[in-house]
Amino acid sequence: MLALAGKVAIVTGASSGIGRATARLFAEQGARVVVAARRQHELDTLVSEVTATGAEAVALAGDVRDEAFAKRLAGTAVERFGGLDVAFNNAGVFGELTPTLDRSIEDWQDVLATNLTSAFLGAKHQIPVMLQRGGGSIIFTSSFVGCGIGLPGAGAYAASKAGIVGLMQVLAAELGDRGIRANAILPGGVDTPMNMANAPDAGPEVQEFVNGLHAVKRIASPEEIAQSVLYLASDASSFVTGEAHRVDGGVSISRN
Ligand code: NAP
Questions:
Q1: Which of 12, 18, 214 for a ligand 1 pocket mutation test, highest count of atoms within 8 Å of Cβ?
Q2: pLDDT value at residue 196
Q3: What's the whole-number average pLDDT of the chain?
Q4: Is 255 within a domain?
Q5: If 0-12 CB within 10 Å is exposed, 13-18 middle and 19+ buried, where does residue 150 land?
Q6: Which of 2, 121, 127, 156 counts the most CB atoms within 10 A of its CB?
C-alpha cells in the first residue's frame, strides 16, 4: 500500500528544490497534491510531470506572505480534492548574507515574513480544514542554521528558522489531542538553487568548503530530504509530534 494513499496534501515552495521533489514523491505515494509558489510556469511543468504518471495535482501561484493566499490554498484543497490531510510549509528565502549589524530592516522583515509568518498563516488556514477530517500532519522546513549552528551572516534566516521550531512545538502541544501532528525538518546543505555552493560565483573551493562541513562530506539531494518529509507526513510517524527532525548529514555534530 502506498504511504499516502487517499490523502490530500499541500506543498509550498513546490516550484523548485526540496518542495518540488517532495510534491513528486507525495504524488508517487498516492497523494493528490496542491502545489504552490510564485512562479506559475514552474508549477505548471510540475503538474504536467505529476499528471503524466497518472497522479493528480493542481497548481496555485501566489505569495506565501499573503494571508489571502494561505486561505485560498487551503480552500483549493477542499474544492478540488475534498479536504486536507497533509501540509508541507516549505517555501523560504535566505536573504542577504551580511553581518547582523549591517542588515537592512527591509531584508529582515522580508525573510521573517517569507519563512516564519508564512508558516503561521499556513497553519492558521490549513489546520481548521484538517480538523474537519479528524486531524492531519503539518510539517515545516526549518534548518540546521538557527538550531544549534550560528552561521555568520545569516541572522534573519537563523531567527526565522528557530522561530519555526518554536511555532511547531506550540502547535503540537495545542492540537495533539485533536489529531494534529506538527513537526519540522532541519535539513543540512541541499543541492538546490538556494545553497551557497550553487551561487553563480561559487567555485569548487566553496563547494568543497560546504561539503566539508558535513560529517558525510557532501550535501543532500532534494529527493533525500523528501524521503524524511514523507515519513513525517505518513502514518509511519503516527507517534511523532513536536519533533525538530534533523536530516543534515551530520552538519550539526561535525567539527571541522
Ligand atoms: P529553492 O529551490 O530556492 O526553493 C525555494 C522555494 O520557495 C521556491 O519554490 C520558491 O518559489 C519558494 N518561495 C520563496 N519565496 C516565496 C514566496 N514569497 N511565496 C511563495 N513561494 C516562495 O530552495 P530549497 O533549498 O528547496 O528551499 C526550500 C526550503 O528548504 C526553504 O525553506 C529553505 O530555507 C530550506 N532549507 C534549504 C537548505 C539548502 O541548503 N538548500 C538547507 C536547509 C533548509 P518561487 O520563487 O516560485 O516563489
A1: 18
A2: 86
A3: 97
A4: no
A5: exposed
A6: 156
Yes or no: say if 166 and 115 are a contact pair by the CB < 8 Å rule. no
Per-residue pLDDT of 55-89, as tens digits, reads 999 999 999 999 999 999 999 999 999 999 999 99
- Which residue do the cell numbers 480534492 mark? 81
150 C-alpha to ligand 1 centroid (Å)? 20
Residue 253 lies in a domain: no
What's the pLDDT band for 34 if we cut at 50, 70, 90? very high
Give residue-wise pLDDT tens across range 215-230: 999 999 999 999 999 9
Number of CB atoms found within 10 A of residue 3's CB: 17
Cα(162) to ligand 1 centroid in Å equals 16
User: Residue 256: inside a domain, yes or no?
Assistant: no
Task: Give me ligand 1 centre to Cα 39, in Å.
Answer: 12
User: What's the pLDDT at 115?
Assistant: 98
Task: Provide the domain count of the chain.
Answer: 1
Q: Which residues are catalytic?
A: 157
Question: Is a pLDDT exceeding 80 seen at residue 255?
Answer: no
Instruction: Please tell me the residue having the least CA distance from ligand 1 atom 12.
Output: 13
Closest to 142 in 3D by CA, of 59, 248, 37: 248
